[in-house]
Design goal:
Cytochrome Bc1 Complex, Chain D, domain 2; 3-stranded mixed sheet; globular; mainly alpha; 10 helices
């Protein structure tokens, strides 16, 4: 065997360096791509629609949502998103933003909450719930997450969410933690945040609702979590299920102090 020449060794080193640089460039390229799109984020259209829906008199009772209590008092929107999910006395359960909106639509406007929950994402009143969520989250953009953990129900759902996050099951023996439980993981060209602590938890939880460029759709957190379960080959959770809300509590509490950038833009 011939010894490696200086020229061949130089080419090998350059090749390895180029490979490392290319990997770094891929991650940076995605970040630059998102930054360029953010100036014209289509989520703004959903925000405008949601703001209009909040004040519009609709439903069997022909009422608006302006008296909806999102946790900071009737009609108070600013700052509500960064404290959800939380416990509500009137429903006697912990709710995230989307399930709370459905409760308000039922109580104030007379809509059938069960029917809205069964409606496919992106259709009918579900589409309106997503628009409302986009506007409400935008009203807290730049604020820090600080989910309450005072009630026993809130503390219990955090622990349930933690167990669900690490529970492995399904045909592929996956868990949420399989992709989001440690540092340095990626899928295709995308880095996967560690959702067990900051900054990953705040960055990940704090970006939804978000506009998905790849399919031209606006996704709320309920759809994001449902799709995660689909990718794990789990049964599809119901809208507003205890499982999805418990996961939201776990992620949100882990992201305490993280800054909300929702509604964001995703690939």
């Amino acid at each position: 065997m011939k010894p490696i020449t200086q020229a061949a060794l130089t080419l090998l080193v350059c090749g390895l360096a180029f490979s490392a640089a290319a990997q770094k460039t891929s991650a940076e390229g995605i970040a630059e791509y998102r930054a360029m799109l953010a100036d014209g984020n289509p989520a703004e259209l959903f925000e405008a629609k949601g703001e209009g829906l909040w004040a519009q008199k609709r439903g069997p009772k022909n009422e608006s949502l302006e008296k909806c209590d999102l946790g900071k008092g009737p009609g108070v929107v600013k700052g509500a998103f960064v404290e959800l999910p939380r416990y509500f006395d009137d429903t006697q359960k912990v709710q995230d933003m989307e399930s709370r909106l459905v409760s308000c639509m039922e109580m104030l406007q007379g809509f059938n909450g069960a029917e809205i929950a069964k409606t496919a994402f992106g259709r009918g009143e579900q589409n309106n719930v997503t628009a409302l969520a986009a506007w409400i989250s935008a009203e807290s953009r730049g604020m820090k997450f600080n989910l309450p953990q005072i009630r026993v129900e809130e503390k219990t759902l955090y622990e349930v969410g933690k167990r669900l996050f690490f529970a492995r099951s399904g045909t592929h023996d996956f868990a949420c933690a399989s992709c989001h439980g440690e540092e340095g993981k990626r899928i295709r060209l995308q880095d996967l945040p560690n959702l067990t602590k900051n900054p990953g938890a705040g960055n990940g939880f704090g970006a939804w609702p978000a506009y998905r460029v790849s399919n031209g759709q606006m996704w709320g957190m309920q759809l994001r979590l449902n799709d995660c379960y689909r990718q794990q080959r789990f049964p599809y959770p119901m809208f507003g299920s205890d499982a999805t809300i418990a996961l939201g509590v776990y992620l949100g509490v882990n992201g305490k102090g993280g800054e909300s950038i929702a509604p964001a833009i995703k690939r």
